[in-house]
Specification:
about 400 residues; Immunoglobulin-like; TIM Barrel; 4-stranded antiparallel sheet
């Protein structure tokens, strides 16, 4: 067995499981076992050539507050004997959209509105750039963000190792996954780009081919991680091309997730959401223009900067979108931003992304310093104001 593919359907109370089996022989069977911990809750013997749909009774749903994972064991039987066996896991969770009582589209988790809020996370490290020094260091960031009261991470222009997403699955952290950009050059005609005022990059045949190949590979490789709920094909017009075609292909390839076709501008009428970037203060797309058809999200804002002497990448020329001299002033400003987000949620905002988890080289606008030695604002203070966002009801 070389791979599996798991697709939950909480409305039908089923999990669809397909298994790629090489060198199948006549009479081979797959024994699929679904376990709650070590207790078998469903078992089925099936033909290796077909996907199998298994019904679960009284299934437990996965969410940030209750990240329950079912264990999965698949055994290849030949003449009644085991010739191969693998273990994996899956979650029963659904990400979708639907109108609230006011007709505004809301992002739904397991058919209920859950405001999604988290940092822009580039996953940079001073000693390894895109490579964390250890697994413990990598998951440290996720742990701290959870303690700060965030329920989502936008993984920005980077794909992490599988262990990263596995940890998000286990700990109940939602993930928006970006496609790493290439071919800089095209711009939107107005900032932040709006519908019907967009430009696209004319990429070479080779460049376009690499994009399609790599985006396909990313989606295939990460498909089984339930924490991933949004795919982001393009960001701020960077290398953006054939937006409608790429977005609709992405939606067709994975209808189980939402698609943020163009985060931050260069919008086309495709995908599930319209995504505004605004610095430093929060803003939102107009609900009266877009809200009845698209999810309204704030894909980037904030960037409040605080340099910590002895923990900056460079001594001079550090920057934030707005800089402060002490943590108290920074937090006070941040708290005003979360209060504004509460107002936006009532108007129809479904998600927001703050810039960002850590300082990144010359950018000193992280919650933590680049070396992770200093958390700039007390975790409990951040959690207090962040938690309020999840209590704001939709109409």
């Amino acid at each position: 067995m070389s791979s599996t593919r798991h697709t939950p359907d909480i409305d039908a109370h089923t999990i669809s499981i397909s298994t790629a089996v090489e060198n199948v022989q006549k009479g081979d069977q797959l024994k699929i076992e679904v376990l709650d911990g070590k207790t078998i809750v469903a078992v089925k013997n099936v033909n290796p050539a077909a996907a199998e749909v298994i019904t679960l009774k009284n299934e437990k749903l996965w969410s940030p507050s209750s990240p329950f994972l079912y264990n999965l064991k698949i055994t290849l039987l030949r003449n009644g004997k085991t010739v191969d066996a693998i273990t994996s896991y899956f979650a029963m969770r659904k990400i979708s959209m639907g109108p609230d009582a006011a007709g505004i589209q809301r992002m739904l988790l397991n058919n209920k509105f859950v405001f999604q809020y988290g940092p822009l996370d580039q996953g940079w490290w001073p000693d390894g750039l895109y490579t964390a020094p250890t697994e413990e260091a990598m998951v440290y960031d996720i742990d701290q963000l959870k303690k700060m009261g965030f329920n989502m991470i936008r993984k920005h222009i980077k794909v992490e190792p599988a262990r990263y997403y596995n940890y998000c699955d286990i700990n109940g952290m939602l993930v928006w996954q970006d496609m790493p950009s290439g071919d800089l050059g095209n711009k939107w005609e107005t900032r932040p780009g709006v519908l019907d005022r967009a430009t696209e990059k004319e990429r070479s045949t080779e460049s376009e081919g690499y994009y399609r190949k790599e985006w396909n590979a990313i989606m295939n490789t990460l498909y089984n991680f339930p924490s991933i709920v949004v795919w982001v094909p393009f960001n701020e017009a960077w290398g953006q091309f054939k937006t409608v075609e790429i977005t609709e292909w992405t939606m067709k390839k994975d209808p189980s997730r939402l698609i943020n076709s163009a985060s931050g501008g260069n919008f086309f009428t495709t995908g599930h959401m319209i995504d505004l970037h605004n610095y430093p203060h929060p803003a939102m797309p107009r609900p009266d223009v877009f809200g009845s058809k698209l999810l309204l999200v704030l894909g980037e804002f904030g960037g409040l900067g605080l340099p910590i002497i002895g923990h900056t990448w460079q001594e001079k020329d550090n920057w934030g979108y707005q800089s402060f001299k002490n943590a108290d002033d920074l937090f006070d400003k941040y708290a005003t931003y979360t209060k504004r987000l509460e107002e936006f949620i009532r108007l129809g905002l479904s998600a927001a992304v703050y810039t960002h988890t850590t300082d990144v080289e010359g950018e000193i606008n992280g919650f933590m310093t680049y070396d992770r030695k200093v958390i700039k604002v007390a975790v409990d203070k951040l959690k207090t104001v962040n938690d309020r966002l999840y209590l704001v009801p939709a109409p």
